[in-house]
Amino acid sequence: MLLLDGKVASQAVKKELMIATGELIDQGKRPPHLAAVLVGNNGASETYVAGKVKFCAEIGYQSTLVRYADTIEEKELLDKIAELNKDDTVDGILVQLPLPKQISEAKVIDSISPDKDVDGFHPVSVGRLVQGLDTFIPATPFGILLMLEHFNLETKGKHAVVIGRSNIVGRPMSILLSSHIKYGNCTVTLCHSHTKNLAELTQQADIVVAALGRPEFVKANMIKEGAIIIDVGITRVDDISAPKGYRIKGDIDFKSVSEKASALTPVPGGVGLMTIAGLMKNTMNAYLRRQEQVID
């Protein structure tokens, strides 16, 4: 079985972006600049944002972290986003989700300039993705494509089953895998909580992307021999024997599935790292599009 190691694949993206950033600086230009907005002190969100800021530093990007208490009013957050939209030194804006209940996530996403929407969530970005036009791809699906590319996994003509229909992962992943692109051209089945006979569908799949948020849901008896398995799930499961009192589990039962799959992502150390890599490539593209240049 091939372990789809996110550390290895993300390191390749990191090296590529370090070189590109260095060339910009050598030309007397400023580096790309990512602005992240974090509301509250959610543990998972803190970890995600810290990882993004660290990645920026390692590849030579400039980053700005804007923090607010979870009591912030919606207007104040929208005003800050409007300020970042107008700032010519900022190339990409991300607002870490989830947000407190008094703030409309849809309104916040819609307020980010499509030119700086490096998370790929804006309706303009989504519409362009559906139409097969150049756009910002949501970071997790983009990261999965980068992983498929790094390990040179053939997708053309294969049957892919995507479990989960979120706007962040499932829906865009199903669109990308069915698109006329190098690591697409699949026949795709999109499954969700109302799908009947889910196991029958996954047993037919050459590729399974699990993004439903239920730890170790997909067992070995649900997949066919030699399938490629992409685990997007990340859930904290209480475990008093663990140093932190919990363990991180994916949606795949790694131990049993690894005995049947031809390729499998670990959790942690798989798709999560590639999500940050996808975000950083989006940020570079946001920077370069202002100069009418895009890297693939």
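Next protein, fold it too.
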Amino acid sequence: MLTAVKNQIKVTFLSIKYACMRQMLNKMTFITNVLFMILNDASFIVQWIVLFSLKENVGGYELKQVLLFWGIAAGIYGISRFFFYKAFSLSDIINEGKLDAYLVQPKNVLISVISSDVSVSAIGDLLYGYIILLIYGITVENFLLYTFFIICGGMTVANISIITSSLSFWFSKSDAVMDTVNTLMVNFATYPDGIFKGITKIILYTIVPVGLVNYIPVRLLIHFDLKLFLAVIGATLFFMGCAFLIFYKGLKRYSSSNLMISKI
């Protein structure tokens, strides 16, 4: 069992490595994509600087603490789009019958699919997140916690995308659901949870679980709480379990397109 898991991890990282190498064939484009993503993320800080020049706090948070929302959000986006990039186009792969190449491989089908390509610009998001942490005030403790949270968050976001995309095994237009959920998570992740009230806040901790992947980690970086820390771990494992369960349940209904495509 442990050998199989070890081999799967090794194969997954090799797949990501080769996908990254393909992207780096044009080094200038690679570097440009990374730098422009950092600049794009940084441009949004201006609006918060202007806002905090008018108000002392927003939703109970000061400027440096609000920047943490951006740092966590960027880190999560970077992890999910770099390591699990194909999770966000899984619906198209299913609808077009392109799972064939992965089904014949002696590897976990789902992991093989979602790790088969990378987004270069996601590296910029990852770097930006650590730049924000540096601005906030980096210590060994919050560096480790931040890294742990963006990994958990990245996995959760990817798993949510897998869950919604896997509905394509039953419904042909499930990509609209996936796009909506992903857009909502990205849009709400960069705002302090203190500005949301009532039903909106409930939705952000359940249906669109931004609270679990972004709001709670920010609180924990500001003030650590063991119960909330365990809640983040529990949520990560829960969504991972749901993603694998729903995907493989739907895979039984998969119809091949008979495309002869080899995948290395």
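About the second fold: The chain has one domain: 28-251.
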